[in-house]
């Protein structure tokens, strides 16, 4: 199914995109709806508040460096798809793997474009033909490399080619990531490689894909919650951030799965092309997402805190009510706790082993190992300026299921928060969740292009009173 994304103005959030306009043919095949369910990205929360404009230090990066690496050369054998515009290239040693990779590329192309209704990657004007090319050659790193190449005149869009280490067992996953990231480069080549890989991994998992590489990436991501949920450069955690894209799509989508993440990337593209040595990724997808919560009862910071709590109950920590579709993660879905404390050891003041990056989170577990008759739990957190933290305490029953949340009040420019909890005899433990919402103030929110981020520390004090 051929499809094309309709360029929408920056002020208009993906009203029609999330409903299927990413695929024009979808409208003709769908019964007309008499009433649309309002959502944040569809403007259901009312007119967005005016954006706070603030001067940006010109020395800060606006995006990653613009690079167009040369195509691999010297391949003696090539094979192309009969049904989809894809080709794979290999040397004589890897030639036996070509049929598997071509089949995988065709399958991924048909599923992403035909089934999900996502747009096709831009035609390739620099390769041997206009199809998407994958080269079976080990990249610098073990993971798949998707490189932008020919830029579209007048906008930040580009065609792409892929390079992968020849492995028959990884063919389907690498082919799906290749097609998905090439599609995203065609929507906005200025967007971060980190987010592109996270979305591509989510799309692969949405179509039923799961492999040891996915478990390893999610294990990396969950073992390092102190790192930013949305970075800039490709990292071992990038594919694991598919969890964030999963939560985003589950919570906010108004159409078929996978459309919303692509719409966020498309809506962040500038009308004017980038110039110079760096991409100008302003606005970025995080700006689009943050703007979607303007005027909503749930703020963007609330959304981030809710995600942080959600990711704490995945895999083997999920009783089947949180995210049953992710039970396959098993122990790889378990987020790392910074501290595991017992109530009998209180009072305690603890600090993290690793400081928290903007959009990173931290988790502490307090086990109620004795009866506290007539006593209350007092909690206080303090952190470094100019970081902004949000906190919540989740009461847990004896089976590991959440009972109740106790959100702490948030004060802009505050550096501490505290709360006293009474009447919690049914709780067997408390999960303490904190997030760094990033940014210096409301006018200077966190920008994923300003990596490396400055992490900040905190202390937590717990006692009974």
Largest sheet: 5 strands, mixed
Radius of gyration: 23 Å
Instruction: Please report the distance between the alpha carbons of the first and last residues.
Output: 65 Å
Q: Overall mean pLDDT score?
A: 84
Q: What is the 3D form?
A: elongated
Give the H and E element order: HEEHEEEHHHHHHHEEEEEEEEE
Please report which band the strand proportion falls in: under 5%, 5-15%, 15-25%, 25-35%, 35-45% or over 45%.
Answer: 15-25%
Question: Taking strands numbered 1, 2, ... along the chain, how are they ordered across the largest sheet?
Answer: 1-2-3-5-4
What is the CATH C level class of the largest domain, in words?
A: Mainly Alpha
**CATH architecture name of the largest domain:** Orthogonal Bundle
How would you explain this protein's 3D organization?
The protein is built from 9 helices and 14 strands. The chain is elongated. The chain starts with 23 loop residues before the first helix and ends with a strand. The chain folds into 2 domains: 234 residues, Neutral Protease, domain 2; 157 residues, Jelly Rolls (Sandwich). Helices cover 23% and strands 18% of the residues. The strands form 3 sheets. The chain has a 5-stranded mixed β-sheet with strand order 1-2-3-5-4, with helices on one face. The chain has a 5-stranded mixed β-sheet with strand order 6-8-13-10-11, covered by helices on one side. A 4-stranded antiparallel β-sheet has the order 7-14-9-12, with no helix packed on it. By secondary structure, it is of the alpha+beta class. The N terminus is likely disordered. Helix 3 packs across helix 4.
């Amino acid at each position: 199914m051929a499809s094309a994304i309709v360029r929408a103005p920056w002020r208009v959030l993906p009203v029609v995109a999330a409903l299927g306009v990413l695929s024009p043919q979808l409208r003709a095949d769908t019964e007309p709806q008499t009433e649309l369910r309002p959502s944040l990205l569809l403007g259901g929360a009312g007119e967005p508040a005016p954006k706070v404009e603030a001067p940006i230090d010109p020395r800060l990066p606006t995006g990653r460096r613009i690079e167009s690496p040369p195509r691999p050369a010297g391949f003696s054998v090539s094979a192309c798809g009969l049904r989809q515009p894809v080709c794979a290239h290999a040397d004589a040693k890897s030639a036996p793997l070509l049929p598997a990779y071509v089949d995988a590329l065709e399958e991924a192309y048909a599923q992403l474009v035909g089934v999900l209704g996502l747009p096709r990657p831009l035609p390739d004007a620099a390769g041997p033909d206009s199809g998407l090319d994958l080269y079976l050659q080990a990249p610098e790193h073990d993971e798949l490399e998707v490189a932008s190449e020919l830029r579209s005149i007048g906008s930040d869009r580009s065609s792409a080619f892929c390079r992968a280490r020849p492995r028959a067992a990884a063919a389907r996953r690498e082919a799906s990531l290749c097609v998905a990231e090439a599609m995203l480069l065609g929507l906005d080549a200025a967007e971060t490689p980190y987010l592109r890989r996270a979305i591509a991994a989510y799309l692969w998992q949405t179509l039923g894909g799961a492999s040891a590489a996915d478990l390893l990436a999610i294990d990396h991501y969950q073992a390092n919650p102190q790192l930013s949920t949305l970075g800039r450069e490709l990292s071992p955690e990038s594919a694991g951030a598919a969890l964030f894209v999963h939560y985003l799509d589950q919570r906010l989508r108004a159409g078929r799965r996978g459309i919303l993440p692509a719409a966020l990337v498309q809506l962040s593209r500038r009308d004017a092309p980038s110039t110079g040595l760096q991409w100008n990724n302003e606005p970025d997808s995080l700006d689009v997402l943050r703007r979607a919560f303007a005027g909503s009862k749930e703020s963007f910071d609330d959304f981030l805190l809710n995600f942080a709590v959600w990711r704490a109950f995945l895999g083997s920590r999920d009783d089947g009510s949180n995210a049953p579709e992710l039970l396959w993660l098993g122990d790889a879905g378990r987020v790392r706790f910074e501290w595991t404390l017992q109530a009998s050891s209180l009072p305690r003041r603890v600090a993290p082993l690793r400081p928290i990056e903007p959009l990173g989170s931290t988790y502490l577990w307090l086990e109620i190992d004795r009866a506290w008759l007539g006593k209350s739990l007092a909690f206080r957190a303090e952190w470094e300026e100019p970081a902004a933290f949000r906190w919540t305490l989740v009461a847990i029953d004896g089976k590991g299921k959440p009972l109740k949340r106790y959100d702490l009040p948030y004060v802009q420019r505050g550096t501490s928060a505290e709360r006293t909890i009474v009447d919690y005899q049914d709780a067997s433990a408390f999960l303490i969740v904190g997030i760094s919402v990033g940014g210096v103030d409301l006018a200077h929110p966190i920008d994923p292009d300003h990596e490396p981020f400055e992490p900040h520390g905190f202390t937590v004090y717990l006692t009974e009173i």
